[in-house]
């Protein structure tokens, strides 16, 4: 009987596409203080700085492509006969563009805007700095990045926890295990009795909680794992 798989990805799965990670040597947080660009307080204090930070990351999406890891995960999504859920911490659209369907963005998406006037989310591919009108309520000056900032509740947590408590295999790819609740998913999976596998370039903060850790680039390890799983 095919097992139920939950996969968690972090910035490391997009690194080989040229998307900077957060805590690496050239990491995004190296250039900015989190509290200056990734909190609701920062947005209230300096909306121009925050909009400019996310406008730049959104614009950069058009020059990056899904890599072999994204494509292998999309193949697994299409061919796996059991239940499968891919939960990503990433706000890029590379899993979407690779073709993954059973996918949840727990930290939001660069290609979505959230209107604080009407509380609706709408697709967004351009800059928000110029205060475009909300496509839903037509008011201007109320669109913020649809990104879960520090101190805000990640999206889809109930569905994610349900999937973790019912899975037989939990795979974590390209995340440092620094940020909760994602870093705690391993504990839910172990509680469910799942086999827990980590694929990462370096040991993470939670490596010791996995049954197996494979160290190396996602672009190499993930296609090999998908071949193993699909036989
Ligand atoms: N292949 C596999 N893993 C890689 C690769 C690669 N090519 N390159 C880097 N990594 C690993 C690093 O070893 C590191 O452990 O990816 C991880 C990236 O860690 P972070 O930069 O901390 O990113 P992430 O774990 O996704 O951060 C989680 O923190 O800042 C918040 O909201 C932000 O979603 C983000 C969350
Ligand atoms: Zn609106």
From TrEMBL:
One of its GO terms (molecular function) is protein-succinyllysine desuccinylase activity. It is found in: Cytoplasm. CDD domains: SIRT5_Af1_CobB. Binds 1 zinc ion per subunit. InterPro entries: DHS-like_NAD/FAD-binding_dom, NAD-dep_sirtuin_deacylases, Sirtuin, Sirtuin_cat_small_dom_sf, Sirtuin_class_III, Ssirtuin_cat_dom. Its cofactor is Zn(2+). GO terms for cellular component: cytoplasm. NAD(+) binds at residues 10-29, 89-92, 174-176, 200-202, 218. Pfam families: SIR2. Residues 1-231 form the Deacetylase sirtuin-type domain. It comes from the Bacteria. Keywords: Cytoplasm, Metal-binding, NAD, Transferase, Zinc. Substrate binds at residues 54, 57. The active site is at 107 (proton acceptor). Its EC number is 2.3.1.286. It is an enzyme of class 2 (transferase). Zn(2+) binds at residues 115, 118, 134, 137. NAD-dependent lysine deacetylase and desuccinylase that specifically removes acetyl and succinyl groups on target proteins. Modulates the activities of several proteins which are inactive in their acylated form. Belongs to the sirtuin family. Class III subfamily. 2 residues (Tyr-54 and Arg-57) present in a large hydrophobic pocket are probably involved in substrate specificity. They are important for desuccinylation activity, but dispensable for deacetylation activity. PANTHER family: NAD-DEPENDENT PROTEIN DEACYLASE, NAD-DEPENDENT PROTEIN DEACYLASE SIRTUIN-5, MITOCHONDRIAL-RELATED. This is NAD-dependent protein deacylase. It comes from Sandaracinobacter neustonicus. The lineage of its organism: Bacteria, Pseudomonadati, Pseudomonadota, Alphaproteobacteria, Sphingomonadales.
């Amino acid at each position: 009987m095919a097992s139920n798989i939950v996969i968690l990805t972090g910035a490391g799965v997009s690194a080989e596409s040229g998307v900077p990670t957060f805590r690496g040597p050239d990491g995004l947080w190296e250039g900015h203080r989190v509290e200056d660009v990734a909190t609701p307080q920062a947005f209230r204090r300096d909306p121009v700085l925050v909009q400019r930070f996310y406008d730049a990351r959104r614009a950069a999406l058009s020059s990056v492509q899904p890599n072999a890891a994204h494509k292998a995960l999309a193949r697994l999504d299409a061919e796996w006969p059991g239940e499968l859920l891919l939960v990503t911490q990433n706000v890029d659209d590379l899993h979407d563009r690779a073709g993954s369907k059973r996918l949840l963005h727990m930290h939001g998406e660069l290609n979505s805007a959230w209107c604080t006037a009407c509380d609706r989310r709408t697709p967004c591919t351009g800059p928000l700095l110029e205060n475009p009108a909300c496509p839903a309520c037509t008011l201007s000056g109320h669109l913020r990045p649809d990104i879960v900032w520090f101190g805000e509740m990640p999206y889809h947590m109930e569905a994610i926890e349900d999937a973790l408590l019912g899975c037989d295999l939990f795979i974590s790819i390209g995340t440092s295990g620094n940020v909760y609740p994602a870093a705690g998913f391993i504990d839910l999976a172990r509680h469910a009795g799942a086999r827990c596998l980590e694929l990462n370039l370096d040991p993470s903060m939670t490596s010791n909680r996995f049954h197996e850790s494979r160290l190396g680039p996602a672009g190499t390890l993930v296609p090999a794992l998908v071949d193993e799983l699909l036989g």
